[in-house]
## 1
Amino acid sequence: MRHAQAAYGSEVTGGRTPEERLAIGLGWFSIGLGLAEAAAPGAMAQLVGVRDNERTRGLLQAFGVREIASGVAILRSNPDPEWLWARVAGDALDLAALARALDDRRSDRQRVLMSIAAVGGAAAADVYAAIALGRARREPAAAGRRARRRGRGEGIRFTKSFTINRQPDVVYGFWRKLENLPRFMRHLASVEVIDERRSRWRARAPAGMTVSWEAEIVEDQPNERLAWRSTEGSTIRNRGSVRFVPAPGARGTEIHVDLEYAVPGGRVASLLAKLFGEEPEQQVADDLRRLKQLLEAGEIASSGTPAGLRSPAQPAPRGEAARLAGKGERR
Amino acid sequence: MKATCWMGKQHVEVVDVPDPAIVNPRDAIVRITSTAICGSDLHLYNGFVPTMHRGDVLGHEFMGEVVEVGPDVHGLQPGDRVVVPFPIACGRCHMCEKELFSLCENSNPNAWMAEKLWGYSPAGIFGYSHLTGGYPGGQAEFVRVPFADVGPLKVPEGVSDEQALFLSDILPTGYMAAEQADIEPGDVVAVWGCGPVGQFAIASAYLLGAERVIAIDRVPYRLQVARERAKAETIDYEEADVYDTLREMTAGRGPDACIDAVGMEAHAPGIVGAYDRVKQAAMLESDRPNALREAIMCCGNGGTVSVAGVYGGFVDKFPMGSFMNRSLTMRSGQTHVHRYMRPLLERIEKGEIDPTFIITHRARLEDAPRMYDTFLNKEDECLKVVLSA
């Protein structure tokens, strides 16, 4: 298995998750079955109990090529759940063909029924692997991070980094003054500081709603690191940290943001948020770019057009122009 | 105000749009007095640059009078006469500190889009697609200039609009092309393309000490300007084989440096030209790199290929073997205009360069649609169009 994985250019780093191992097994099963169908269609026809003639041989050979292709695709894609879904579609084709064979009196009913059971089992394994793998892939760096995730809700965790051409004390100082955050974090409506540790955050949610929660600072190493988390009982459970590291060669400060939160409403809400274009990782990348613009250039770049991408590059009417300041462009 | 807008492939119109206003504290509003159509505007005109929208205001070569400044703009006042660089630069990021102004990290509001196509984003550019910021351009009566404390250069009274206008783009672009060719005494420099940038690259190569400059084009009147005004020797590539001719002209050495002042819409005779046109039309390659291919093949061993022509995406049949095995160097980039404006203005004032020799057409802003057509089709011996607003 190891050898084969390397041959297909997959990563062999520190072992596979169980769902990946299952997917790879299914990939090899596909190739083996496909080779048998393509090389010995007559023997295969007998084995599954369908009548052995030119037509079924041709069909079996075509199915064999399909099996080989999907097997290779699964192995080459390291494995990608999409290709497992392709296998599921193939299983459906197989089942349809076998169901037709059941009506054919020249078929061996016993063998066809057993074949249907076998394909059904493989299909179940394919569906399971596709779903499990898809779920694991949606969470970045699946295995290690899942192990660290606590609680039951669907969590999102990711890191984002940017370099800002200002000294760490300046960048830290700006961030530590939490009221500044909504100036570059577009989804935040406000941050209200309650005391040295606690603050109240209000965010814009999809479809014009707002949500709010209370956060507390759990670690504060001036000019180096700041960490926070939502307090007990918050509707949006989240935690985050930002490290401020001097960039090499007087290039300013590297900021490394690490965010983790449970999405209210679980998967459905997360999916809805994506439909509204609120991809969290992309949002943070945009936020950090705006922070860089603010701290370096003193303002957030704007084309000065009314709706950015959605409008032609023409000046906004005079009344609207002032409203664009500090907003930057929408994606 | 009136502005020249891109309305689709080979279709521009001068229409009424809102006047620009101050948005950010470092903005200025400039009333345009003179603006030009650039060869790179023709790439937009021909629809080869992605992310153009119907109604986009064009123009990145312009100058005029400051009429309003934001609260954080120091050293610039209403009434100042300025020429504005085409890349927008904040002056404070790492790239700006290294004087790589066309790579400013803070001026492209659509940087994410450029990152998808190019990996990382260059600076924002006036009137040059949404990929480089979606900024309204300067072929208009007014323009909003961000980071106005960094870009605009005040023009002294003794210098006319026509003398100063090309500091916004093509004069620095031709100059940077020659500078990046690393010219040493005795060098022979070959320049592909005798458009305005090519003409300025020829003149700049001489200023930087080239022994001989050989210009390549196929349009007789442009070759004539290169010979008579820029003092180049010339090759008409439809009359002679470029490689053989350059090799003979340099006694077998090949040019020490080659400058591509053509870019993504190169014409090529015969089968190769047809090949690239078909692939470009089928979107299998975005750019037609014939001048670039030829510049590489023709460059002498150990020489430098300097690319001033604009490319947008992907090229095909790139002669990597020639490039690698012969220790060539390639240098390129959108022009870091800010770095060259002041020294070149001084050369203009001293009479070392008179950039006005390329102007063939003078018209009103309203005439922009007709002038785009004239320029594209090289009608009426058109080399450079200046519009006054």
## 2
Amino acid sequence: MRVAAIEGRSSDVPEAAALGSVGPAAAVRLIVCGDPLRGDDAVAGLAAERALEALDPALVGAIEVVRRGGLEVEDLTDLPPEAACVVVDAAVGIAPGRVVVLSLRRLAERRPGARSAGPQPRSTHAIPVETALSLAVVLRGAAPRGVFVGIGGSGFDLGAPLSEPVRAALPALVGALARELERLAAPGSAEPVAAGSGGDGLPVPGRG
Amino acid sequence: MTGPVGETTFSTDYLTRVEGESSLLLRVRGREVVEARLSIFEAPRYFERLVVGRTPDEVIDIVARICGICPVAYQMSAVHAFEAGFGIEIAPEVRALRRLLYCGEWIQSHALHIYLLHAPDFLGYPSAIAMATDHPAAVERGLAIKRTGNRLISILGGRSIHPVSVRVGGFSRVPRRDELEPVRAMLDEAVRLASETVDWVAGFSVPSFEREARLVSLRQPGEYPYNDGRIVSSDGLDLAPDRWDDAFTEVQVEGTNALQARTADGGVYLLGPAARIALAAEGLHPLAAEALAATDRRADIATNIHWSILARAVELLHACAEARDLIDAYLRPDAPGVAWQARPGRAAWATEAPRGLLFHRYEVDRDGRVVAAQIVPPTSQNQAAIEEDLRLFAPAVLDLPHAEATLALERLVRSYDPCISCATHFLDLTVEELG
């Protein structure tokens, strides 16, 4: 598998390429957030590995993987205008094990912390996804094209395993992530069709 | 907000723009603050237990996971502790690379705090997002500096979050000179932007607040303290970096999951950029020293914690300038590290994390495995000083409207750049007025 991984250890690309920004061939930047030592916070990394293994190798070559403890603003501000972005992370504020896919543009249109009828994931990290995204929108002038793929988590203690709801919903998260990567890495990809409660995105059935 | 009869309660859901999760309780009777408590309720730090039975190099990778903002600091205190305990001498080139790695962490951490977390307080914005709308160039400047720090850590540490290259005796791999060239070019710009940062924050209007705090930091002749130096204080303490526990102790305090630290006589003390500027400014890079002198604020930094943003900016300039010098002088070590053998017994050291002194102590058995560990983060050491300063500062804001008073207290706490997740994540602020 050829994956341009900035932070990961599993990359088999040359080191210099692994440290660079999105290469000209990378159509999608996959930002994998979480800490593998903190219970359900490990789920994004597990899902990313499995989703990439499930994809056509030709598509994987167009995906740049960035592993982070939490989403950083620069990950979005540095994104070339033509590239898409997928952020995968565990979230609180939604039922444990529930998988959601939210358009970054639609997510950015919401004021951080605002309530609506749709899913309201709050990242488990210090700078919430909405805040980093809103800041990127101000600086870029528009939200990056792409989606947030999240799963509700329930336990983030150090040394803890995945919670049962998250473990059970991992295949659903992998499937949702693989579908979004496949769609966005394909030539001529477009924004997801807005659907789901409150028009916030496309909730994917999971447990919880 | 009115609570039970005779009490008034101020509260907010979250004190934002701090790293971690905790709550603050301030109880006021008349004009007297009867209780000021920073309660840290995130799960306790299991790391001291997680490292038991592990080898030193495993410990270095594990402790990096304590914090996503300052993983290098945890690695540095650990690796120096083991090297001190095992009698390992590292090559000067390796020592220089460790300082360069630490520069990277200071750059990204300080740029994050100054621009995204703290500056909005002084410019009247509720968040960096709101500030960016009116001051996009300032935020871009901060992100450019932060990017430089991340790049340094990526090159030296293998990745920018939780780096993996630090090893007992040196590194797992050291960079070729050509690998440092791209970040060397970035540092020219970062030095210029950091210099602008000092000028920018020096012009901020900060709240009046004076107190004489006991300040503690490392001090090392001829250089600004990162990995080495003696533990000194504003009242004359002078200790070797492995003897923190001779003069300080940890205590369990009701209502918090983090241990607090005190001096042996029960006193509170302050760590971090303000303490370092007060105690060790003579070691600053000439560019940073000159910038600090031009502000004429060194004394203010020691007595008014709100000026910590200026201390942080001066240190940001220092770290960028020293990083540039270190790369210019870089000689790739002949080997990434030296061979070593574990020795049973005590292994301890203190280094300067971006937020202040970070002490590690390990007990190692005959098989070279850790049997006990003590990790004392800067925020848990500053926790009592934060509470003390809240107690002293609160009377000045009690006559303000509720929202303004609450905001002023939040700003005070953010001045310490607390990293709650290190100490044991969102701060739920509650202020109660009794009578």
## 3
Amino acid sequence: MGHEKSELILSVDYGQSWPLSDIFWDERPDWESLLPRELIGRLEAWARFFRDHADDETGLFGSEERRRWFDLEGFALRKTLEQEVGDQYVIRLELWF
Amino acid sequence: MLLNPITIGSCNSGLGDVSVQRMNAASVGTIDLFCGDSKSGYVHIRDRHQKDWQTVIDLTHGGGTLWDDFMVASTSQIVSNPSAGYPKSEGSGKLCYTAPIVIHDPVTKTVSTYHPTVIVSQNRKLVITSFPTKAAPNCTGD
């Protein structure tokens, strides 16, 4: 019987500086040992981009180019996370905004 | 603190400017948790974080509490009496609040502590979001 993998949600809300759902977990993974530093930086930058540009009044990013970058970077991050830790987690991307 | 079902019905009907709960927030004064929409307020929190708040409720083995009653009570407590050093500015007129919320499990006799993250619009005096982060809040300045 195989080990059931935990679901890790890639998503960002206002105030989130780290865009993975382990912020709700009792015990968080040691990302520094699991992920390349460059990927950690990209995850943090993706969350920062949302905080800097997502307007909760208008539901807009300020331009379609920004929205496209945010969505495409989200897809790319999911793919890279699957490559890095897909053996341990099921990665789900939620682009809700 | 029990939410009025009629108020929640208004939220379900799409009335975004109905206040679900009025609160007193440190550094800001009176603020509201409005019904809002998918981007902010009660509806946003329900869409994005009901499951997260329910996980906390489940630690009390039910306890007879609904997720949103607990969320609103916790959020109100956090913004009125935040931890030292909070609120912190998130930029763009947003403030980040946190305070420890202690959960007692009556069955296993265990105690869990959460540090939820609450984001408030300082200019519009409303709650944008609230989610139960575990070990530490997720404010930008942390």
## 4
Amino acid sequence: MKFLSRQEELLLLSIWKLGNDAYGVTIRQHVGRMTGKYWSIGAVYDVLDRLTRKGLVSTMTSEPVKARGGKSKRYYRITKQGFRELEEVRSLEKRVWLGLPEAAPEKK
Amino acid sequence: MADKSQGPPSLASCLLKIIASARDYDYAIGDLTENYEYIAATEGEKKARRWFWKEVMKSLPGFMKNALYRRTAMIMNYLKIAWRNILRNKLFALINTLGLAVGMACFILITLWIQDELNFDKFHANRDALYLLTIIHPDDVMDPNVPYALAPRLADEFPEIIHYTRIYEYGSIATCSFKYQPDGSPPIRFYENNVNLVDSSFFPMFSFRFIRGNPETALQNPNSVVISDKIATKYFGHDNPLGKALTFNNRQDLVVTGVINIPSNSSIQLDFIVLLPDRLENDWNWRDPSYVLLDKNVSLPDFREKIAGSIQKYSNYQHAERFRTDVLPLTQVYLNFGRRTYVYIFSVIAFFILLIACINYMNLATASSANRAREVGLRKVMGAKRSELIQQFLGESIFLSALGLALSLIMVKTVLPLINTLTSKQLTFSLLHGHFLYLFLFGLVLAVGLISGVYPALFLSSSRPVDSLKASLNFKSRRSAFRLVTVIGQFAISVLLISCTAVVFKQLNYIQKRPLGFSTDHVIKVQINPTLLNRFNSYKDKLLQNPNILNVTAGQEVPYNEDYKTSGVEWDGKDPELSPHVRYTVSHFDYIETFEMELVEGRSFNRDSPADINNYVINEEAVRYMGLAEPVGKRLRFWGNNGTIIGVVKNYHHVPLHLEIMPHVFTINPGNFRWLRYVFIKIAPENIPDTLRYIKETSESYAPDYPHEYSFLDQGIGNLYLAEQRLGKIFSYFAFLAIFISCLGIFGLASFTAEKRTKEIGIRKVLGAPVSSIVLLLSKEFSWWILLANIIAWPIGWYAMHKWLQNFAYRTGLNPLLFVFAGVLSFVIAALPISYQSLKAALADPVDSLRYE
């Protein structure tokens, strides 16, 4: 079983959080804010495409929006499979952290 | 802040649209635009635009991958259809691939050649700091040869010069013979003319590879000699030459201290390298090149300005202020003296031949568009977008051009040895090494595919489905204007090349047939040597005892290439301001007689009048130049020697016909006899082998220590025009290729036209038209095209050849008939495929063509 990559996990979580308003611009904004790093549009799309292909998110195209130069948005929503994989990662995280202190010990 | 934003950069959007699949593009551009507007509103339009570009460039690879991934099925379908089309139209596919392959092979070969030309002298580690000293003459001609004293004087004054070296081409002014005495076998002896004296910094400056020996110590000793690998094999075979002795002119032993390999793309080609024993600080003779190695940090323009007036500063030449000293980067030396034009000419030809091949593809693809119209219509009905169709057709042309490349690589591999002998180069693919080769080939396929495919793609994809799906094929003469222009262009290029070839050959013929003004028939050239020279009179008498030997003389150079100039001449009434420029001949008695030069006034040198050694013979041009009304008897001072003019020789061609005949002075002063290099012997046409044997025996008995080498003088004349002969040959090959590719194209077009008009021809035949009228009907159109092509090509060809002929001081006229000949030739060649196709169509049984109606 292959685990989600960190990037995939971050984007999936963003999509979950954004709920009904998850499309390219908002996802990128959100993940950028969360990580405090610059995400290029290409990088976001790359991961989104991978998620779509794996069936972890489903897509839906909106009506054309005037503010966007008459182009439509593509909304993303997590599928059941997506939630399952997120669960998987979370429990994995818990398991590997079990018994470790919150902070790294000071070096002597 | 502007209220109305300009919107995102359209070029970037366009790029995205081309690369990304349609589905991706829509939402991606939406997201990008939304973000763009946000940035534009908060941080300004300029920043937003930069952001937009950056994001698009970054996201392209991802989209490309996606687009390919999604389109795999469609691409497979395209490939299948392309393959079926090739199979269905085998003839067209063959013509296209063959044409493209020949064009590409040509292009690849010429690229390799140009690459080699441009790579000359680039192998030196110091290539960017090496310069040739040059002198700019008052008439702006750049002279690669400078006085020997110049380089050391400059080096003394300017610390910018790290090293300098002269290359004193000793072998071209004095006889050099070498002898190697192996243990227990006869000596190996040859005359050599590529013997050079250089300064000690020669090897530190240039990066010639030492096969044997040590570059640092090789030239430490004045008795050392470094030889080229070619010479090493010539004298020593497979033995190690290091430490062995070569005897120079039977008086000095030189020890071989190094064997070097000089690559063929070096403009400096030396066989024997010996240390220059003297600094020659006061030798202002002006014959050989000097090179300098400059400090890398020197500002070149400043340095050039500093040295510009150095001839005036150091030398006491008359009018030294008219000459300017300059430097030329070593890497440009080769191109600068004559080669650059050829690089340009061949680049243009390569491009044109490739273009002709591309045009073939365009024409055949659009001509056969009717065959594809249904497919296009159906695809459109099923929802294909025009951009997708364009991609499909472009893909097809790129596919064909890849096939063509494969074929052309095989062709290049096969003809490369031939080209190498023709150009005397060593071209290989390794000239474009590593990644660059692949990049070049890939780029070539892409460029050829796009150039040839873009018009057909636009044309084919433009048809309206309703039209194309209606049963009738109503595509007849749409857009034939384009085809017209391209076919005419193709043939214009071919006619141009044919006429250029014809002119080059006519000029070659002219210069080879033009009377030189003297006779070289049955004149033998024998290398002179010091022993022979010392006993020349006795040797001459001994030779003349043979009744088949008519005349014997000696001279410094062959009479048809005696490019020695001097300004050391004065005469009565000379303008003191004038710095004269004359050619001269240093010779023995009977020079004029041996070559049967014609005297127009006075007499020639006479062996019975000893005073003649101080007298001079001049040519007609000299009489004119000096403005002498009664030349015979006038006083003339040559190299400080006072004498009298005793005769005037009719003008003859003392240099190749590129150059004008100049004033010429003949001297037989024994003080100059050390410059004599050849014995010239005029023999009778009878019994030549016996005469040659007699000459050999006599020479060997007089100079037993020296080798005996001879050649017939008229053989050398051909070598003067080697470059032109080569050009003629290469031009004729290119002309042949161009016309071949054009014919392929016109063959395809003719077959297509005939096919399209099958029914028309059938009806005409049923109604009683004779075969001849149908052939005429089909060929008429093409004839007009070719005629028009000729009319376009003639003035261009005339102009180009007019320019080329300016290279020759003596040239053939540009006969209009030559161009007519090129036109007729193009007609005849084009008529073959056309009439073949027309006849085939005209002879077909009308029953077959009309049966289904």
